[in-house]
Amino acid sequence: MNRINKCFESLGQKNKKALISYVVLGDPAKDVTLPVMHALVDSGSDIIEIGIPFSDPTAEGPVIQRAHERALENGSSLDEALILVKKFRETDVNTPVILMGYTNPIERMGYEKFIERMVVSGVDGVLTVDLPPEEAEVFNEQLRASNIENIFLLAPTSSQIRQKKVTNMAGGFVYYVSLNGVTGAANLDVDSVKDRVSSIRALTKLPICVGFGIKDGVTARAVADVSDGVVVGSAIVNKIADLAKLGELDPLIYAETVSVVIKDIRDALDR
Question: Residue range 245-264: average pLDDT?
Fold first, then answer.
């Protein structure tokens, strides 16, 4: 069984909600991401999502776009993400790791080589923002054959037809985008999220996790009450950005800072 599936099975047995934490590879420096990943796990994250830096991250808001820019400035790449996960696996063989990015870097590497490298590195899932299900069938089959879950996004604007296509193809969990627009947006409407999650749940037995707009323990708890878990990204990346602006160079300071964010959210989810 894939680590993502094991994670949700274990959480279900404990009646707990999933906390998925997102960081951008190499933001703001290459030596920061690994200690941050371990700190996220130690402070209560169940799954780690690594953003692959890209020059045109269209789904991201200003906060995460700037993180991509910082990461690209120091030369971070898909290849380095795979190396990093392999390094992470030297001391953590249990926490699921998902790579989130765009098709261009994958196409440059080659889909088959990318999958082979993910298997060797210990990656558990991939979320390709700009690869719709209509164009992902072959890739999806290759991923399943390699025991890697293909995560898909659904948005408030997703039609019933799109919901069916995604839920038929998705693995691991369904990532529901709680807001129209980009990451880091505001004005979270929990009642609307509840209605949309219920609609999606009628189509799949997969867990449904909600991202975009999860800023703290209060918003995380509210969303978790109507879903199987939350995805936290901008709240973490914001803290990293603040330290980067101050010129902080110590990776351990970054790790300690994100731990505070995640502990607050974990505590709220477990109440």
Answer: 98
For the chain, how many structural domains are there in total? Answer: 1
Query: Would you call 137 a catalytic residue per the annotation?
Result: no
* Other beta carbons less than 10 A from residue 75's beta carbon: 10
Per-residue pLDDT tens digits for 77-96: 999 999 999 999 999 999 99
- Give the tokens for residue 65: 């776009």
Cis peptide before 28 (omega within 30 of 0): yes
Per-residue tokens: 196 = 């949309």
Contact between residue 122 and residue 87 where contact means Cβ atoms under 8 Å apart? no
Q: What percent of the chain lies above the pLDDT cut of 90?
A: 92
90 is catalytic: no
- Reduced to 3 states (helix: H, G, I; strand: E, B; else coil), residue 260 is helix
- The enclosing domain of 69 has a CATH number of 3.20.20.70
Give the whole-angstrom CA distance, residue 209 versus residue 19.
Answer: 9
Q: What is the pTM of this model?
A: 0.96
Half-sphere exposure of 255 (CA within 13 A, CB side): 14
Is the pLDDT confidence value at 149 over 70?
A: yes
Residue pair 196/157 in contact by the 8 Å Cβ criterion? no
Residue 252 CA to residue 249 CA, distance in Å, equals 9
Q: Which of 9, 60, 137, 141 is catalytic?
A: 60
Expressed as residue numbers, the domain containing 39 is 3-270
Q: What does residue 18 show for φ and ψ, rounded to 5 degrees? A: -80, 140
CA 261/CA 92 separation, integer angstroms:
21
Q: Which of 49, 112, 134, 141 is flagged as catalytic?
A: 49
Tokens of 207: 């867990």
Q: In the predicted model, what is the mean pLDDT of the chain? A: 95
